[in-house]
Structure formats: C-alpha cells, structure tokens
Amino acid sequence: MTTCKTPLLAAALAGALLSLGSSPAAAIGTEKPIVAVSRNWPATLTVSWIHMGQTEPGDALWRYDIEEQLPTGELKRYRTARDVRTLNVPYPVPNQTHRFRVCAVYNFNWKCSNEDGVGWTSYPAAAPPPPPPVASTPTPQRLPTPVIRGERIPMGGDTPLYNVRLTWANPVNATQMGLITRIDWYRNGALVSSSPKQEVMDAPGPREQMATNRYKLCIENAANKVCSEEITVAPPPIASNDFNGDSHGDILWHNASNGESQVWSMTGAYRTGRATVTDGTRPLFIGAPWHIVGSRDFNGDRKSDVLWHNSSTGEIQLWFMEGARLAGRATVVGQDGRAIYIGPPWSIVGTSDMNGDRRSDILWHNSATGETQVWFMDGHKLAGRATVLGEDGNATFVGAPWRIAGTNDVNGDGKPDIVWHNGTSGETQLWFMNGHRLAGRATVVAENGGAIAVGLPWRIAGTNDFNQDGKADILWHNGSTGETQMWFMNGRSIVRRATVNAASDGGGAFVGLPWSIMNQ
Predict the structure, then answer these.
(1) Tens digit of pLDDT for each residue in 238-261?
(2) 3-state secondary structure labels for all residues of 46-71
(3) Which of 465, 366, 467 is nearest to 414 (CA)?
C-alpha cells in the first residue's frame, strides 16, 4: 500500500476521457466499488470494498485510489494494487466521524463509490453519540494473578529448533480486559512482547544453545499490576547417540576385519543415510588393540563423539566428531593432567551424562570384584569418580551372569539409568539411578505386562531415545540373522518393537560379523 501525496489527476483524466469519448472504438470500465467500513480493536478502521474488476473489452483495471476525510476536514489519500480489497487506517479518537470513498482506476476511466447519487461512506454511519457521563465509566477492578502455560512447537524438518507457544490460561472477564493497559511477556527476565491484548504468543526458541528457558506474564490496569509465576520450558530431549545433530538417535558400527567405522543416520527405526568415518579427506581404519567402547557427546556440542580403549596399553582416547568426520582427538587424562592407563579386570561398559552437566561420563565395571564405578568427565579430563551405591547407600557388587548392556535415561527423569542383562536367564533389568546412587530397579516386561526373557543369538547392542519421547529405547542385534531390532520403551514396559528398515536408503539392514554395533 502506498500513500498518495499528490492530488488525484482528475482534470487530466477528464480531458483524456473527453477525447476518448469521441472515439466509438474506445471501451471503458463501468463498475464502481461498494464500500464498507468497520472498526478493529482498539484504534484501527478497516476499509473494505467489493469490486469484481470487470471491464469492457479493450479496457483494464489499473489500481485503487482511496480518499479519507478526517474529522478536521483534511483529506488523506492512499493507493493500492488492483488485487487488494482492504485497507487499515488509524482511528485514534473514538466517536469521531471519518468518511471514505474508493475509486477504481482503469486505463481509460475511473469509477468511484460515491457516484450515481451515493454519498461517501462514513464511520460511524450515524452522527456520533454524545460522550457518556463520567459517572458511567466502569471502575477498574483489581486483576487476578495470571496463570500461563508453555509448549514447544517444532519448526519442522530435521532441525531440532523450535518455538515456544505461551498461553494465558485464565484470562480475565471482558470488563477487566477492556481496561487492561499492558500485557507483557518475558523470557529469562527480558521483555519479549508488549501489547494491549495478546493472550497467546509464539516466542522464538533458543537457536544457539538448546537450554531451558523461563517465561512470565505481567498484566496491568489502573488498579494494579500482577505477574504470573515463572514457568520453564525445556528443550527437546537430546538423543544420546546423535552424530548429525538432528535429535534422532543414530547407530555406530565397526568392522573388526578392516577397521572401518560407519555411522547409520536414523529416524526412528528407518535408516536415512550412512557414512564411513573419515578425517575429512580419507576413510579411517582402526583395528586391534584399539576398540570402540562408547559413543556419546563428551564436549557438549550436541553431537556424539567416539571413545576408544587400547587393550594393550590401557590408554583411553576420545575422538571429537563432526558428524562422521574426525574433528580432533585427545587422550583421557586424570585430575593431575597426566594420561591414565587402565586394563583388566576393569573394562568400560557404558558412556552417559551421569551428573547432568551435558557432557558424557564413563561407566566402568570390574569383572573380578563386581564393582561399578563412574568417571565424571569434563571433555577428556577426569573431574571425579564414584563407586555405584545401592539403595542402602553401600557399594554394590554384581558379577556374571549379569553384564551392563547400556546406560541411558529409561524413565524420563533426566538422569541416566543402567540396563543389565542376565546371560543365563535372559532377564533384562533396569537400575534407576540418581547420579551414582541406585534409586530403584525393575525387570523389563513385554507389551502385555508379562515377563520377557531373551537370550542368544540376540544380544543388547545399546540404548538410545530413538522415537524422541524422552525415554531410552533398547537396541538388539541377532548374531545369527544380522537383524537389528528396536524395543520402544516406556520405562520398564515395551510399547512396541520394530526391525531396522533400510529401504529408503538402499542396501541391506541385516548385518553380521565382522560388523558390530558400538552404541554403548
């Protein structure tokens, strides 16, 4: 919409029309607009017009010119394109009469809404009523404390970014609403939006760091100002084995024969792509005595890294990854800054963020004593260690036929748990953890609630939140058939299961030796 600052060229057009009128071949537009004016809340008028834009042969609609006569008598002029049928104009003072006319401008003519005995269209349509007596002005009521809700609204696609939809859950009555002077939404203490009336607002979610944000609503009228309690909206759950940063859990494979490592990009149970691990220019092939013992995010960039252990020297090395590309590496060092070398009977059995600092830690198990120990990590540096304690606060010792098969947040409380499997009975048991302390335990049950026991050739190959419900699922692999299967979990209960599908990516999904899954 363009505001027209110069007078309409009526005289010029009239002259042109006189000359055209002498030519019988000239055809002109004859349809005039039909205008209506309505008031928008709180200080805007909407001018709308009905006009089909039909013309005689040889003519064409060009644009619309709108004139507004203010209460002072001043004329304001606007111009819109030919496909526009509405115009919003300011209405700052209630009960003041504004008059409008709309002109359809053709190539050879123009037709205005006030022609053929029809006057300008006014708002209000009748003479404005006298102002109400002062005594009738409603007295502002004290506003109640607002209550707000917040929910994540995904931005779509594979991006983990999102917006936050904030809703005023207990809006006040119409009288109070009419007297409200400010509605202010805050995020993390900073004003996000201010409006006389905004009961629902979509606030941008974080773009750089997927952090929990705090939100608050304050409302104000002449009587008082009140604010809601702050609410928090957390980011989507972080997939614990996500190499490409799309918040979907991926699968890491290693070939024991040629040393190749391969990342399967997953969306649920569907493989969407795969890539060999490289240094950016060539594939990397690493074999014995080095072994992959875990893959989690150790440096806090929301992308999984790869943890290696040398069974000969006891060295532990971290590969910091950018997707399937090695971006850097570092040997794990102790609190004194020196490299640490650990061998049997200790072995790394899992990696997960046990203390909630968004950097993965390392879980060890001693096959001789049955002790389980957590190394709290800061990247490649050991920050502290603790033995896993039972519900009674004492150290707990568990040995064969039980083995630790995975570490992840199974019950959705934001704290990683430990998944155990019994190689003799086939039982799978969950330890619900609070850091390094055992808070409770439960045996995994099937979809019908009954006990389920699974043994060879099936083996738990790892855990991850594959369906993005905030609760870890269990990944199984069949050593005989090469099938990979996901158990989608709700705590201890299997909700459903699915075989990994590679149809959309091409190639087979049934993979056996010398390949192994490394999602510890």
Answers:
(1) 667 888 877 788 999 999 999 999
(2) EEEEECCCCCCCCCCEEEEEEEEECC
(3) 465
